[in-house]
Amino acid sequence: MLTIRKLKKSYGGRILFEGADLQINYGERVALVGPNGAGKSTIFRIILGDEEADKGTVERDEWTLTGFLPQESEEVGDYTVLEIATGRAGMLQDLEATLKSLEDAGTVDVPEYYEAQGKFDALNDPKVEAKAKEMLRGLGYEEDRFERPAKEMSGGWIMRAHLARLLVIEPDLLMLDEPTNHLDLMSLLWFQNYLKNYSGAILMISHDRQFMDELVESVHDIDDRKLIQYTGNYSDYLKQRQENYERHNQAYKNQQKQIKELQEFANKFRNVSSKASQAQSKLKEIDRMEKIEKPLAPKKPFRFQIPEPPRGGQKALALNGVHFAYGDLRVYEGLDFEIERGERTVLVGPNGSGKSTLIKLLAGELEPQQGEYKPGHNAKIGYFSQHRAASLNPNNSVLSEVLEAAPTLREDEARGILGSFMFRKEEVYKMTKVLSGGEKSRLNLVKFLVDPPNILLMDEPTTHLDILTVESLILALANYQGTLVFISHDVHFIKELATDVIHVAYGNAKRYHGDWDYFIEKSGAGDERAALTAD
Reduced to 3 states, what is the DSSP secondary structure of residue 135? Predict the structure, then answer.
């Protein structure tokens, strides 16, 4: 289906990768991993023909229909959500124009024609609207939003409409660049289950460890300018990579020991006439050796100890008889809710069930329309949301912002923490006013960790983070001495941290005194998604 041979690509003298080989057969599920900037998205662009390699070849079966989901969506104009999902938002017209142009030129026996024809046929199917609606529902859309203009939606919801269209087309090779970034837990689990039964091949870039563990059969890692293949899912890859490093490192040490012994013999006896020839032979033996390079140790999560926050009361937060509504939409009526000191609680439930509303009520961001909001004794509350504008001084650098938040922190400590959250080298001197939304979110997260509240409320804290940074955050929060309440679509993150699960649905908040697996078992549902939608 797809074969990459001896690919090389560099930018400004920096080699991203060289001698890269990759083969994907029909029906295979492959993940492309590596640190930010390693060249993962570049390989995608080369495969799609949007960028040229310095060397090497990309061969694709001419009958292969390829579909690509980028990280950012294009302009949507005045089209509705359903028009995007069905291809009526300009895509059908563009495909028809491409086919006519190729036909007029007499070039119909080319891969471009086959691909355009395949996509046109898929979007021209009489059942395309029913199929598009099925995909939109799975990805979290309510029926009454199908006909709404997409430009009224957030970027995340627009991406879901584009993803629905891609699934409607059903390409033979599905290329996904961070597909879970804009999904909540419900839609992510639906998408994951859908892909388990997908007949085509999948090539993905993802920062969601559990998602890859559930789906992929092989991992290709861009490491030290090489593309290295591992068999199995992401967890298998981590294990194999460590084993490979230990073998390589031992071989390097053994060779260095041998070289040292040979060199010492030569140095000792090179001037002794009876052994001079032996000494020379030892030196030649060193020269003939194929030298083993010292391997780079696999990067590991940054270990950062969150300072101990001030001790709060045993009852951290409580809501008594709380009513809350958005206009005529009643979310809670007479809600009683309590969080104890030291609990690590995840809020889960269907789309629109009120999870974010609940966490905002707990943070004091929303005021109950009836009932009582009671913070506990000595409560110091911190609310982190990816959508909340960070309280950043626009005239501060990234580094200054962190040092002001924690005056006792040394500069090297601050730089280490920032580095683990993807602010590396000179990036710590960027002014906060020029940061992207994702960068501001990460900086706000660092500020919480260096000067922690004793009650930390977090809404989707892993968005915009790579896998190593997520692991660093998990390690930090696992040793956090305060109270944690969070919402997340990252199942690995939930499994590692949550000791309690609260299922939010239909105006109720039902507590399960146990971890994620305990919640799934006690819910009596057949699978994770069914557990989230249960009454």
Answer: helix
DSSP symbol at 502: E
Query: How many helices (H) and strands (E) would you count in the chain?
Result: 18, 18
CB atoms within 10 A of CB 440: 19
pLDDT digits (tens, 9 = 90+) for 467-496: 988 999 999 999 999 999 999 999 999 999
H helix runs in 291-422, sequence order: 355-363, 398-405, 411-420
User: What phi-psi label fits residue 534: left (phi over 0), alpha (psi between -120 and 50 degrees) or beta?
Assistant: beta
Q: How are beta strands 508-512 and 455-459 bridged, if at all?
A: unpaired
Tell which residue, 351, 500, 473, 484, has the closest CA to residue 417: 473
Q: Residue 453, Cβ neighbours under 10 Å: how many?
A: 18
CA distances from 444 to 175, 453, 490, 499 (A): 32, 13, 20, 25
d(CA 484, CA 497): 9
Q: What is the mean pLDDT of residues 274-303?
A: 91
Dist CA 395 CA 347 (whole Å): 36
**Dihedral, 377, 380, 386, 390 alpha carbons, nearest 10:** 150
SS3 200: coil
pLDDT at 389: 54
- Structure tokens given for 3: 């074969």
Return mean pLDDT, the chain. 91
In degrees, rounded to 5, the angle at the alpha carbon of residue 350 between the alpha carbons of residues 497 and 375 is 55
Measure the CA–CA gap between 57 and 472, rounded to whole angstroms. Answer: 38
Q: What is d(CA 82, CA 159) in angstroms, rounded to the nearest whole number? A: 13
The rounded Cα 346 to chain-centroid distance in angstroms is 19
- 């570049």: which residue's tokens? 42
Q: How far apart (Å, rounded) are the C-alpha atoms in residues 258 and 33?
A: 35
SS3 103: helix
DSSP string, 59-118: EE-TT--EEEE-SS----TT-BHHHHHHTTTTHHHHHHHHHHHHHHTT--SSHHHHHHHH
Do the Cβ atoms of 396 and 390 come closer than 8 Å? no
CB–CB of 178/212 below 8 Å? no
DSSP collapsed to 3 states, 447-489: HHHHCCCCEEEEECCCCCCCHHHHHHHHHHHHCCCCEEEEECC
Distances (CA, A) of 122 to 65, 98, 197, 243: 11, 15, 19, 45
